[in-house]
Amino acid sequence: MATIDLILLHPPTYYDFRKRPGIYGPISDVVPSTPIFEMYPIGFASLSEYLERHGLKVRIINVALKMIKDDHFDVEKLIQKNRPLAYGIDLHWMAHVHGALALAELIKKFHPHIPVLMGGLSATYYHEEILRQYPYVDFVLRGDSTEKPLVQLLRELKGKKELSHIPNLTYRDGSNGIRVNPITYVPEHLDEIAIDYGHIMRKVVRFMDPVGYQPFIDWYSYPVTAVFTCRGCTYHCKTCGGSARTFRMMANRKRPAYRSPILLAQDIFDISEHLNAPIMIIGDIFQPGEEYGKTFLTELGKKPIENHIAFEFFVPPTRDQLERIARTVKNFNIEISPESHDEEVRKAFGRPYGNPPLEQMIADAIELGCKRIDLFFMIGLPKQTYQSVLETVDYCRDLLKRFQPYNKLIPFISPLAPFLDPGSTIFEEPEKYGYRLLYRSVEEHRRAMMSPSWKYILNYETEWMNRDEIVASTYESGRRLNRLKAEFGLIDPKTAASVETRIDRALQILKEIDSILSIPDPQKRESSLEAMLNQPQSLQQYSMSTVCEKRELEWPTRFIRMNFFKILKTLITRRKPHGSNPSPTGSS
């Protein structure tokens, strides 16, 4: 096999989770992955396709998932036997900071001369600190789009190593100083970037590594896929590291970059040919404007699609918009995050709408045949009290009662954890918004990930709730919402009982950890903690599906099938991806 130019590694949150597990809490209950966050960023797929299209050889290895699936998987052996031109590690969200730095250090241990690159929003925010504090990281590629700069960097690493002209790059110069090239590569549209699942399938076969390319632990039994509308955002949610303000400050993005609605529809057609499985549209199709959404739906209506398609909305869509979706998509689903039932809390967070339009959307969607509506609420918001969290569950009861007998309105609630996003409005000005920031530097966040419970990992408190109250309100609201779902038949009694048991046991373990950490003698404290944490299987089950069963996230598909003939044809046919010859038609 020819030499690989770049190996992209996806790290676990905490590298030593197999040796020293903790109670990570319900931080991943409302996403497909486990608390180790083994779901690698969708940008890995677009980077791999783009680089291969430009003559470079790339491999993705989901290290986090390999470690989860095999207790004996040897990470050091994997790194030792692979000698690419460079290694790349994602540090998109700070939850991965411990694992990312641990992998970087291992690479330098075995391959001191192979460059280590980092990218992602968190790496962008901390680019200079990372290079100053951690000698095993050589480069940080900044911004939300690094495809073209990465091609340039890899070519220079093969040649003259002239780095001063590469946009978005931070690196060490010869005198060990830090050089920061300006962020000038900020694409105005995403038509040259593709999430090509055929490309990923061919890579799985090429490297005979289905686990290394697997997006998350249950993907092969529930192969949900995604297409993306944009990079950037027009909204200003206060804790979000992907808000308009944060993108402008960190990524030099003054406005979102959108994918052509025609190419977006084609992305869905391509997936549907291979898989009869759910497809998530990432980003509100009406965020770029009414014309974008209309063009996309017109194009999507040209072919029948049996897949369940989930539409993400940032604000409740109008009746007219929903009618267009219903005419186009046979099996449409909705995801929206009101964050809180309290309109004052929602407004303080940055969601600019009240309850009447939300409730009207629900009524319209049900009438128009929406297969499922997911509502996501959050804990740890500005102006949100413990009592307000519990009142959110009361509001969910009102909604479920009002919209009976429709039984596919599914509410979820989860904490804003483990960290406030670096670069978000509240991270930058915590006191102004009633927050107290507990960790600010990379090293403080890295050490926090070594804590035995998620209460001590949280990097913030608010003037309305301290960490104890955030944790307590999370479990109590989760318990009440779990009972509510059982009462209205959204989950069966066995599932409800299982969730309730996990909540009870998780609270008990958290109290035990608090008691151990209060022991004055450091040696006795550490030995007691070691004895408790030396139960990996027991502890892990109380960090999974804690406040809701993970299966509750799955859309109501009757069956999932793979078109093996089409997949086989894809594996033996190298086709030109739709993103490689962009057409601006219909772009916003």
In CATH, the topology of the domain at 6-191 is named Rossmann fold
Order of strands in the sheet with most strands: 2-1-3-4-5-6-7
The total beta strand count reads: 19
Q: What is the helical fraction, as a range of percent?
A: 40-55%
Oligomer: single chain
Q: Kindly provide the name of the CATH class of the domain at 6-191.
A: Alpha Beta
Uncertain ranges? 580-588
Mean pLDDT: 92
Share of β-strand residues: 5-15%
CATH architecture of the domain at 6-191: 3-Layer(aba) Sandwich
Largest sheet: 7 strands, mixed
Q: End-to-end distance, in Å? A: 42 Å
Which structural class do you get from the secondary structure elements? alpha/beta
- Radius of gyration equals 23 Å
Q: CATH homologous superfamily of the domain at 6-191 - what is it?
A: Response regulator
Discrete helix count: 23
Q: How does the overall form come out from the CA principal axes?
A: globular
Q: How would you summarize what this structure contains?
A:
This protein is α/β, with parallel strands linked by helices and 588 residues long.
Describe this structure in words.
The protein contains 23 helices and 19 strands. The chain is an alpha/beta fold and 588 residues long. The two termini are 42 Å apart. The protein has a domain of 186 residues: Response regulator (Rossmann fold, 3-Layer(aba) Sandwich). Strand 6 and strand 7 form a beta hairpin. The C terminus is likely disordered. Helix 10 runs parallel beside helix 11. It has a seven-stranded mixed beta sheet, with helices on both faces. A six-stranded parallel beta sheet has the order 8-12-13-14-15-16.
